[in-house]
Specification:
heterotrimer, A alpha/beta (358), B alpha/beta (397), C alpha/beta (309), B: 397 residues, alpha/beta, D-Maltodextrin-Binding Protein, domain 2, 2 domains, 13 helices, C: 309 residues, Rossmann fold, four-stranded antiparallel β-sheet
């Protein structure tokens, strides 16, 4: 019995990994997303400094050298002199600089490109820092109240970036697990594959189990690829709790299969089942908060993420990978609940489906 | 002519019957537009408020009459915020009188992790004129927390200025006046006073639907019929390949027109923006974009014969082209291999050109490049297709 | 009468209804061990339903089944250990190699034959590392037979085994089937090809509309027709009035749009009469053939319609 299971799992795993679509969606796509969104969100070492364009009107009373000094003392800034406001504005439009500083009399005017909605708040902070620093130097002002920022969690720095990686691993698990139940109980049934096997004494549950297990190597491979690539491309490393991590990969895949089982209950043909799964996958990508921050969506949109398994998987992985604080109770409850629900759904579908189409 | 019409109708009917086709080709672009406009467009306004916990010291040092404690100053600031119209942005949470600052912070940190609080401030014990420190506890994973921290930082800067003025270190007039403004990015009549993310996205979404139609839909349909031998059977009849091509192209054009109309209608309805999509220049540019996409679709069909691989190759082409083009978010900062892809990607230039023509955003790339680079792709794809395309791979072409 | 210990399977009063449709309407037959039995009939006769009940894929609504001497309610896992099956449509999981597929199926059974032996038997040794979907039609059919043999079954069910194959592949498959019979296997075959039924069968059951309407060896069935010869010629648009004339001369005639077949006992009188008529009717006798009756003719006699109608 066990040998049968192992043998079949091996053959089915190989079949899965040989499929070009598997290779793309499970292995390549997460990496592609990693490159794109990783570059987008990493504002650590990779990014350039914010460029300040300097334009001094004739009436300027603040000294040029003073401003240059202040800017240079800030690691995150660099400056460039320009000859006209128009030139400066054009550079801003072309995304070649972050802010244009016009010194007029003893006033500073900062100009920004309104299209850079995400970047502007940080750029504004830098600008305010310049003004503050100038004031302090000129009048020898006191900084009575200093601020010290304390970041919670183990990692300081932008965690939209860091939480991307657990999110990508979750995406790999989703691609690996979401389609298999539709494949087994609808696609293979439609094609008559199951019928042939029904003519043998094969235990159906044993085969289902083998098919489910056959997805795990792909999940693990996808995870390994993401971890290795993130180390080499973005130089990030994680404080992974390995004892929880490997089981979680497997559990996560099963949870995604549960979602696939839910689809199977409602889909009538393999084609519509696969399509529904693709749509669900896309919805999860947009609404889980992994690749796009959902905090700015209206609250009714944000509520959608509560119903998406991907959200919980990504959160769980974040904790296990040390990106956010490990909360064993909520992790166990969320994951455990989803796992039980998924297994139940798979069992229901399994019992309900006949291998022989009427 | 009749043959072309029949082919066209056949594809149209297939599109209309298939619920999922309708979703992906007609509904999804609208959903995408809406979500991205909301996400990248910044705050929506009503829903945003910052939950800030204030932790006070149990005792305040040196409370003599003349010297104000920082705790009192900050209390004043908070009170004035709460009484002003800015109060809707902030929700302050205070500790119980019996709680110590440390206990309160420990309690609030849990809320900070879960997102129920955006910031915790620990007010120092000190008083003027000795400098002291406010601790700001931030959750770096949360956009709102980061923004709240920036806002508090600005407020503290202002407080410092006011204290300096009050202490007589400087007079208000002496301080450097700082103003800020947004540059004008619209090209049309200066009516547009504010930048609209939705306007910025519309040309991109239109281009994205063209990319999908021209590459995915076209390739999907033809390749599936090719693989099933249906095309071979067609061409055993007097139907000429060129007629088939014309029929399917007519379908793609009609599909694209419907998509543009839907996007336009939706942007009027949901975002209240009315872009001039029907001016001649823009229509020309849209047709150009569609031709570029279709020719790339044929190139894929020419180079990839197996039905199994064609779907994957299409996705492998479409995803980078869509994401690394500036359609969804700005990509000029990309370096390395990604930067290279952005630079050779015809979609980059097409979307820049489209935005420029509509007056939504001036193109960071020159008008000439916006025509030449996509044209190179178009010509190259057509050339490859002419040489290698076969309606019937494995048989006579 | 065959002693019951020589019977592989026996069914009595088997019924399967789908609503008002009587797919299998009370049939009884048995299959002798070590022989090839054929269930012959047109599409829709109920052959596939019958064989699927015997394969354990469907359950009968009524009737008794005896499996190698054991009375069973239905064919279950225990019986399936001894059954080999070739379905009408055979599809397999993609991206699996031939060798792997055999291994997979062999794992389904308690006992199985060595994979290499099977590969030799079905002549696919050189294709063992090929993906199943890359095989030609004939090769896939051979693989399907290989999978049916993997558990060294006592009885093989072959449902329309040569449908859709080219003539060469058909002949190869017939050779293989006869080979298997020589190995001592019991084979139960369904087909709508009468040449296949005639060539391979030791015994034939003819089925139509859910019932068995005749049975016997091919020779017995043909002999029962009572006619020794058949004369065929092209119809060439012959009008009904002319056909009426022919009907007066001969008692047994089959008319199709393309062909006319006349069943006669004695050629020496029948043939001159035909030529005579043809001259008078000014009709050319194109594609004139004289042959022995076959199972198709038997079927037509029994039902009034052809096997391929």
């Amino acid at each position: 019995m066990f040998k049968q299971y192992l043998n079949n799992t091996k053959i089915l795993s190989l079949a899965f990994l040989r499929d070009k679509e598997t290779v793309f969606y499970v292995l390549v796509l997460p990496l592609l997303f990693m490159l794109i969104f990783g570059s987008l969100y990493s504002d650590g070492e990779g990014r350039h400094q914010d460029r300040v364009l300097l334009y001094f009107e004739d009436t300027a009373t603040i000294s040029q050298s003073e401003i240059e000094e202040v800017i240079e003392s800030n690691q995150g800034l660099s400056y460039q002199h320009i000859n006209s406001i128009e030139e400066g504005e054009q550079l801003l439009r072309d995304y070649e600089a972050e802010t244009l500083l016009r010194v007029n009399g003893d006033g500073l005017e900062f100009s920004y490109n309104p299209a850079r909605i995400q970047d502007n708040p940080a750029i504004e902070q830098q600008s305010m820092a310049i003004a503050r620093e100038l004031d302090i130097r000129k009048y020898n002002l006191e900084t009575y109240l200093q601020t010290e920022i304390i970041d919670t969690g183990d990692f300081a720095g932008s965690s939209q970036f860091l939480s991307l990686f657990p999110g990508l691993i979750a995406l790999g698990l989703a691609s690996s697990g979401l389609f298999v139940i539709v494949e087994l109980f609808i696609y293979h049934k439609e094609k008559g594959v199951l019928k042939r096997m029904a003519a043998s004494p094969l235990s159906r549950n044993s085969f289902t189990f083998a098919l489910i297990s056959s997805r795990m190597p792909a999940s693990l491979l996808s995870t390994a690829l993401i971890l290795v690539s993130s180390r080499y491309i973005f130089n990030v490393s994680f404080n992974i709790n390995w004892f929880l991590f490997i089981p979680y990969i497997i559990i996560g895949t099963v949870i995604m299969m549960g979602l696939g089982a839910l689809i199977t209950l409602f889909a009538t043909t393999a084609d519509s089942g696969f399509q529904a799964a693709s749509i669900l996958l896309t919805v999860m990508i947009f609404f889980s908060g992994i690749y796009f921050p959902i905090e700015f969506l209206p609250s009714y949109f944000q509520q959608v993420s509560r119903f998406l398994p991907l959200t919980y998987l990504a959160r769980g992985l974040q904790q296990i990978m040390g990106v956010s604080q490990l909360d064993p109770t909520s992790l166990a409850m969320e994951t455990g609940g989803l796992l039980i629900l998924s297994i139940a759904l798979i069992l229901v579908v399994s019992k309900k489906s006949s291998w022989v189409a009427d | 002519m009749l043959a072309i019409k029949n082919i066209f109708l056949k594809h149209l009917r297939k599109q209309l019957r298939d619920r999922y086709s309708i979703f992906w080709n007609l509904v999804f672009p609208l959903v995408l537009l809406t979500i991205l406009a909301l996400i990248f467009g910044g705050q929506t306004g009503e829903d945003i408020s910052f939950d800030i916990s204030i932790a006070r010291p149990e005792s305040v040092r040196d409370t003599s009459e003349e010297n104000q404690s920082y705790a009192m100053i900050i209390d004043d600031v908070i009170r004035s915020i709460e009484e002003s119209e800015d109060s809707r942005w902030f929700q302050f949470h205070h500790q119980d009188p019996e709680q110590s600052a440390e206990e309160f912070i420990a309690q609030e940190e849990e809320f900070l992790e879960s997102g129920d609080r955006h910031l915790i401030l620990k007010i120092p014990e000190g008083s003027l004129p000795e400098p002291d420190q406010i601790e700001i506890y931030r959750q770096p994973g949360s956009q709102l927390s980061n923004i709240a921290a920036d806002v508090i930082n600005s407020i503290v800067t202002e407080i410092n200025r006011e204290i300096n003025i009050a202490e007589g270190n400087v007079s208000r007039e002496q301080l450097i006046a700082t103003t800020s403004r947004q540059i004008d990015v619209s090209l049309s009549n200066g009516e547009e006073d504010s930048f609209s993310m939705a306007e910025y996205l519309v040309p991109g979404i239109i281009l994205f639907t063209f990319l999908s139609s021209g590459v995915e839909v076209l390739v999907g349909r033809i390749s599936s019929m090719r693989a099933r031998g249906i095309l071979r059977r067609y061409f055993a009849t007097p139907l000429k390949p060129i007629q088939y091509f014309a029929g399917i192209l007519a379908f793609i054009i009609v599909l694209s027109i419907v998509q543009v109309l839907l996007i336009h209608g939706w942007s009027i309805f949901f975002f209240d923006i009315n872009l001039d999509l029907f001016n001649f220049d823009f229509i020309f540019y849209m047709v150009f974009a569609l031709i570029v996409s279709v020719s790339m679709g044929f190139m894929v069909l020419s180079l990839v014969k197996s039905k199994e691989s064609v779907g994957v190759v299409t996705q492998a082409l479409t995803y980078p082209m869509a994401f690394l083009s500036g359609i969804f978010f700005e990509v000029t900062g990309m370096t390395g291999i990604l930067g290279l892809i952005v630079a050779i990607n015809p979609m980059t230039y097409l979307v820049n050109g489209m935005r420029d023509i509509l007056g939504v955003y001036p193109s960071p790339t020159s008008d000439l490049l916006n025509l030449i680079v996509p044209a190179i792709w178009m010509i190259g794809s057509i050339a490859i297709s002419l040489v290698k395309f076969s309606w019937n791979p494995g048989g006579d072409s | 009468m065959t002693a019951s210990n020589q019977r592989a399977i026996e069914i009595n009063g088997l019924k399967k209804y789908y609503g008002s449709v009587k797919a299998v309407d009370g049939i009884s037959f048995y299959v002798k061990k070590g022989q090839i039995f054929t269930l012959l009939g047109p599409n829709g006769a109920g052959k596939t339903t019958t064989i699927e009940i015997l394969e354990g894929l469907k359950e009968a609504d009524a009737g008794q089944i005896e499996f190698f001497g054991r009375k069973v309610d239905k064919i279950g896992s225990q019986e399936k250990e001894d059954i080999g099956v070739l379905l009408q449509k055979n599809n397999y999981i993609e991206k699996v190699k031939v060798k792997e597929m055999l291994k997979m199926f062999s794992s389904f059974y308690k006992k199985s034959l060595p994979i290499n032996d099977i590969l030799e038997k079905i002549a696919l040794k050189d294709k063992e590392d090929a993906f199943v979907e890359s095989l030609s039609g004939g090769q896939q059919q051979r693989l399907s037979i290989g999978l049916a043999l993997i558990n060294d079954p006592k009885i093989l069910y072959l449902d329309e085994p040569t449908t859709g194959l080219d003539p060469q592949a058909r002949r190869n498959l017939w050779d293989l089937i006869e080979d298997l019979k020589n190995d001592g296997k019991t084979i139960f075959l369904t087909t709508h090809y009468m040449d296949e039924a005639e060539k391979l069968s030791d015994y034939v059951y003819i089925m139509d509309q859910g019932k068995i309407i005749a049975d016997g060896t091919p020779e017995e069935l043909i002999d029962n027709l009572g006619q020794e010869n058949v004369i065929d010629f092209a119809r060439n648009g012959l009008k009904d009035n002319k056909i009426a004339e022919l009907k007066e001369i001969y008692s047994k005639i089959k008319i199709t749009p393309e062909e006319i077949s006349i069943y006669v006992q004695d050629l020496s009188s029948a043939l001159p009469a035909l030529i005579n008529w043809a001259e008078k009717a000014d009709k050319k006798l194109d594609n004139l053939k004289i042959r022995r009756p076959n199972l198709e003719d038997v079927f037509i006699e029994l039902t009034g319609k052809g096997l391929r109608d």
